[in-house]
Design a protein that fits this description.
Number of helices: 11
Radius of gyration: 47 Å
CATH superfamily of the largest domain: Histidine kinase-like ATPase, C-terminal domain
Strand order of the largest sheet: 6-8-10-12-11-9
Strand content: 15-25%
CATH architecture of the largest domain: 2-Layer Sandwich
Distance between the termini: 52 Å
Shape: rod-shaped
Structural class: alpha+beta
Order of helices and strands: HHEEEEHHHEHEEHEEEHHEEHH
Number of strands: 12
Helix content: 55-70%
Number of domains: 3
CATH class of the largest domain: Alpha Beta
Length: 470
């Protein structure tokens, strides 16, 4: 910002100086040349008046010779011609002739007049070195004043830019810290424009209210966790005790009640997970994506193998994402759990991770819960299954709470994934897996130091063999 302000001020000052200084210099130089020409013509006229006594009256006094000697001492060349064009007096050396020109001298002529008319002509040649020196000094003075004005303007503009940009930079850093979870961050802006100071005051008020809201929400979550889970556990224990001594019909009813209690417990846990995802305060860290993917795949593989489901992984080694601790694990757990619920025995799940966004025009790409976010450098993680998939209408509402496509589901898995991805500056998109099924694509930011090197790298989201197997 400071550089742009300085550049804009310098361009403006340069334009103003050019508009004022250049015409002024040209006008002054033209006036100096006109004065020089008039002065030379006046001198030639004086010599013509003196020469008229010699040519008209025939008086051979010393006045003409003295005038010619004074002009010769000043570097001028003079020649006096009679009516016949013969030189009757002049300086020694080369004498100017009527109608001649010299690039380094100004040549003027004046007629010698008496009562009968023109009786001769005086030709005066004067060097223009002094004139050019004055014009050069004029332009040098204008250039010096212009350069001095630009230098002063640059210092003034730099000071103005620092005065205006420093508080904005401090406010931006404070906003970044607040966004990273430091809720006690406050902007200290004691200088700068009044508008910026008012903005800092408003920011501090917003940060204080946000801190109070988040802390209140966290306290409420802790209370809900305790107040709801404890009665549910007690109720489930009592139903277990009743089922031990109940007859077969009553035991079946109690088993149904147990299932509803278990579903209610899952719902409470899911709501708490969504609330935690929406109130993130931890700072992001560099996470080894292949290591996390391999760990979660290993944790879910026994459940998949028990049902004959193939769980494959294809990750680019060395891929790092900028994510808060534990969030990528939660995202993968929810996606793998949803995929397993959507598959029948013998299905397939493929997990892939790569740097860069998959190519545009990929079939089915484009539905996001939080709108398009333009990110040039991302880590792309995809979980694809060949299950029953989702219709376009279901994909449009899949990230809403309680929007479940399977009976008995809570409808919170994809909502949690969306909140976690958005909280880390990423996006979630749903698309159809080629051949049937659902593909969930997560884009998470890369660390700043890796973004330039990854800018042109966009390998496939999943190995082609894994997708084609569906």
């Amino acid at each position: 910002m400071a550089t742009r302000i300085v550049a804009a001020v310098l361009v403006l000052i340069t334009a103003l100086l050019a508009i004022l200084a250049v015409p002024l210099g040209m006008l002054t130089a033209s006036q100096d040349r006109a004065d020089f020409r008039d002065q030379t013509a006046a001198t030639a006229g004086s010599v013509a008046n003196v020469a008229e006594e010699r040519l008209g009256d025939g008086v051979h006094g010393p006045a003409l010779d003295r005038s010619i000697a004074e002009l010769a001492a000043a570097g001028d060349r003079v020649a006096v011609y009679n009516a016949a064009g013969r030189v009757v007096a002049g300086t020694a050396g080369p004498r100017p002739a009527p109608g001649t020109s010299d690039p380094d001298r100004l040549v003027v002529s004046a007629p010698i007049l008496d009562d009968s008319g023109a009786i001769g002509r005086v030709v005066l040649s004067r060097p223009t070195e002094s004139l050019e020196h004055r014009v050069t000094m004029l332009w040098a003075l204008i250039a010096g004043v212009t350069a001095g004005g630009l230098i002063i303007s640059a210092f003034v503009a730099a000071g103005l830019a620092r005065w205006a940009s420093r508080p904005l930079t401090a406010l931006a850093r404070a906003a970044a810290r607040l966004g990273d979870g430091a809720l006690d961050t406050r902007a200290r802006v004691e200088s700068g424009p009044p508008e910026v100071r008012r903005l800092a005051t408003a920011f501090n008020t917003m940060a204080g209210r946000l801190q109070a809201l988040v802390h209140g929400h966290q306290s409420m979550m802790a209370e809900v966790s305790h107040q709801v889970r404890t009665p549910l556990a007690a109720l489930r224990l009592r139903l277990d005790l009743l089922a031990q001594d109940a007859d077969e019909a009553t035991a079946a009813e109690l088993a149904g009640a147990q299932e509803e209690i278990a579903r209610l417990a899952r719902l409470v846990n899911g709501l708490l997970a969504v609330a935690r995802a929406e109130n993130v305060t931890a700072a992001p860290a560099d996470i080894d994506v292949p290591a996390v993917v391999a760990d979660r795949a290993a944790a879910w593989r026994p459940a998949a193998e028990e049902r004959g489901i193939s769980l494959t992984v294809d990750c680019r080694l060395g891929l790092i994402a900028r994510v808060r601790d534990g969030h990528l694990e939660q995202i993968l757990d929810n996606l793998l759990a949803n995929a397993l619920d959507a598959l029948s025995d013998g299905g397939t799940i493929a997990v892939g991770a790569s740097a860069g966004r998959p190519g545009a025009g990929r079939p089915g790409a484009g539905r996001t819960a939080s709108g398009p976010v333009v990110m040039a450098d991302v880590a792309t993680i995809a979980v694809a299954d060949n299950g029953r998939g989702m219709g376009h209408q279901q994909q449009g509402t899949a990230f809403r709470r309680f929007a479940s496509g399977s009976p008995g589901g809570t409808g919170l898995g994809l909502a949690i994934v969306d909140r976690l991805a958005t909280a880390n500056g990423g996006t979630v998109a749903l698309s159809d897996t080629p051949g049937g099924g659902l593909t969930v694509t997560i884009e998470l930011p890369l660390p700043p130091e890796q973004r330039s090197s990854r800018r042109t790298s966009a390998p496939p989201m999943l190995a082609a063999a894994e997708i084609n197997r569906f």
